[in-house]
Design a protein that fits this description.
By secondary structure, the chain is mostly helical. The protein contains 4 helices and no strands. Helices cover 61% and strands 0% of the residues. The protein is elongated. The two termini are 34 Å apart.
Length: 176
């Protein structure tokens, strides 16, 4: 049985269920039993700020892991940027999953293999887009510093990533 800080990767009755804490007024769960009285109501500004802030902070965590690993492998270990980026993306994927589930979407249930698989699917699409843009910039403009190409690629892939997480991975019951 995993401890409190370890992911629960055992398939159980709630293996694919996602339970979230939602700030009051931020969604159907925010105002009592069964989201009573919130049908058609917009999320509160405070809930949106917390949600958006969590997305930005989680994205910065994943981006930082990506950038630090890329820089360490290219400058410190002499790797080619295209190969180093694959390792950096893999490590950023794990950091992003754990931080988005906690900071952006306030998931309270233990992590599951099903949730990670959904997150990895969304992340794979976003990472493919990100990598294609990164490689396109480096190939199209050979003198571009790899970190500048990383910033441009990450900015474009952010929208696709959020939509997939919001509507596919961490979708709470009762949310559109």
């Amino acid at each position: 049985m995993p401890g409190p800080a370890e992911p629960n990767l055992e398939a159980g009755p709630r293996a694919d269920a996602t339970e979230r804490r939602v700030p009051e007024g931020a969604g159907p769960e925010g105002a009592g039993p069964e989201g009573a009285g919130l049908e058609g109501r917009e999320p509160s500004r405070r809930g949106l700020v917390r949600h958006g802030g969590g997305f930005i902070v989680s994205g910065l965590i994943a981006f930082s892991v990506d950038a630090v690993v890329l820089q360490a492998l290219t400058s410190g270990a002499g790797w080619h940027p295209l190969g180093a980026r694959i390792v950096a993306i893999a490590l950023a994927l794990i950091a992003g999953w754990l931080s988005h589930r906690r900071l952006t979407f306030a998931v309270t249930t233990p992590p599951t293999l099903g949730e990670f698989a959904r997150y990895a699917g969304v992340a794979a699409i976003a990472a493919t887009l990100n990598y294609a843009i990164f490689a396109g910039v480096l190939i199209g403009w050979p003198g571009t510093p790899p970190l500048l190409a990383l910033v441009a690629a990450t900015a474009v892939a952010m929208g696709a990533s959020y939509a997939g997480m919001r509507f596919g991975v961490f979708r709470a019951p009762g949310w559109p």
